[in-house]
Design goal:
This protein is of the alpha/beta class and about 450 residues long. Helices cover about 25% and strands about 25% of the residues. The two termini are about 20 Å apart.
Length: about 450
């Protein structure tokens, strides 16, 4: 006999996750060090250029020296007492293409923090920054291309979060990876995404941090408070059946990537003062992209974190002075404190999701032609599930308006809430307030 539906009045038995602050996360955030981030970017800039096609032999100039230095940094983190990190390398040959005139060996380098849940060994969260850089001509492998912000900022953020999370024991794996070949057509991230898919990984969430260290935009605005989260609403891998269901319930704004962006915003703003992340309703900027698109193409929830106001004189430009105007992505315009703030926000979200219980499955929406909404789902055997959270918003809104907590159950009845008027999703939560990604209905009853 199935348990009866839970009614709305039971939400008073549990406090919302919005009211819970985890001291472990606070301790991690205190460890994020802007000086270390500055030091990483300074070192990366010192290689002169990190163009994918640049020198691979020299220790002082070119991408070869940069990647060996990065690998040594990740390896050193793995050797720190108490660290659980495992060095990671993804080596492959990129074949000739529009931005690669001849075959070249590329390396994605980083570290993996292994998960502890034996039932979720093939689940992972991926964080990347690309360590290659470019001048005005993407094929110019000898010109100076400091790449302080694009993407020394994202690479430094990735290395720093690996450091502060090294001793953690998440439920699922976390990959911290500096990828190559972004400027040559996302080739490094494309190889990594395909490799992980081939190895059978379920990527819960992926984020590319790309251009996240400039606080003075070309529009004249100075802003160290805001950031942007770029996310697609409809997955590129949507099947015909999924499309039909999406059209039936109207959740084209609710793809897995979009929900991951909302999750990052919610977690970051809860813990980090003076940080406001905007969920951009686009996969990326107009006519541009980054490494999250490689993972999106494989069907994984992937987003990109960027600064709020970009300065185009400092992106994809030869270092020069022209008519009294300076160009180039130099160290002088990198704001490590801002990148550290973004690191704290993103680190909070990754920490929470990696420690959260397994999400609900097979969410079913019922109540059509009725004044009441019925929701059913299946819970995993994860013993850490302490409660469920119901996410709600009116169908004319794109942001969640209510999060209600209920005791652990597999169904809800919302009296006098017509399903036509609202959008719903269900998440699981543990006793520390760590919350899974909300799961939307995938079928009707």
């Amino acid at each position: 006999m199935r348990a009866p539906f839970l009614l709305g009045f039971t939400l008073t038995l549990f406090c919302s996750a919005q009211e819970i602050r985890n001291p472990k996360i606070d301790a991690m955030l205190q460890s994020v060090d802007a000086k270390r981030i500055q030091g990483t970017v300074t070192k990366l800039v010192s290689f002169g250029t990190r163009n994918t096609l640049s020198d691979t032999v020299s220790e002082l100039r070119g991408i070869g020296g940069a990647r060996r230095w990065l690998a040594s940094e990740f390896n050193a983190l793995a050797k720190v007492p108490g660290s659980r990190l495992q060095p990671f390398e993804d080596r492959f040959t990129a074949e000739p293409g529009p931005r690669i005139p001849m075959a070249v060996e590329l390396l994605n380098v980083g570290a993996v923090l292994p998960g502890t849940d034996p039932l979720r060994t093939k689940e992972a969260i991926i964080l990347t920054g690309h360590y290659d850089s470019r001048a005005s001509d993407v094929l110019n492998a000898t010109a100076d291309a400091p790449g302080a912000n694009d993407d020394g900022s994202g690479t430094a953020l990735t290395l720093e979060l690996a450091r502060v999370m090294a001793a953690e024991k998440p439920a699922v794996n976390i990959y911290f990876v500096a990828v190559a070949g972004e400027e040559q057509g996302l080739v490094g991230s494309a190889h990594l995404a395909k490799r992980l898919k081939t190895e059978g990984f379920n990527i819960l969430a992926m984020v590319s941090v790309d251009i996240a260290g400039n606080t003075e935009g070309q529009d004249g605005v100075k802003d160290n408070v805001h950031g942007r989260l770029w996310s697609e609403g409809v997955s590129a891998s949507e099947s015909p059946e999924q499309k039909k269901f999406r059209q039936a319930i109207g959740n084209e704004n609710d793809g897995a990537a979009r929900e991951w962006a909302r999750y990052v915003k919610r977690a970051a703003e809860r813990y980090v003062e003076n940080l406001d992340l905007l969920v951009m309703l686009r996969r990326d900027r107009i006519a541009r992209g980054s490494d999250h698109m490689s993972f999106a193409s494989e069907g994984f929830p992937a987003i990109c974190l960027r600064e709020m106001h970009e300065h185009y004189d400092r992106q994809h430009q030869d270092v020069r002075m022209l008519n009294g105007r300076s160009y180039g992505d130099d160290l002088a315009h990198f704001d490590a404190a801002y990148t550290a703030k973004l690191a704290k926000g993103l680190g909070t979200a990754i920490w929470q999701l990696s420690h959260a219980p397994a999400p609900p499955l097979n969410v079913t929406l019922g109540g059509a032609v009725s004044p009441d909404t019925k929701l059913r789902w299946t819970l995993s055997l994860d013993p850490r599930i302490a409660a469920v959270h119901l996410f709600r918003r009116r169908a004319d809104s794109v942001a969640w308006q209510r999060i209600q907590a209920f005791p652990k159950a597999d169904k809800l009845l919302l009296k006098d809430v017509p399903p036509d008027n609202e959008v719903f999703a269900i998440a699981t939560v543990d006793t520390d307030g760590n919350e899974s990604l909300p799961t939307y209905p995938t079928k009707l009853e």
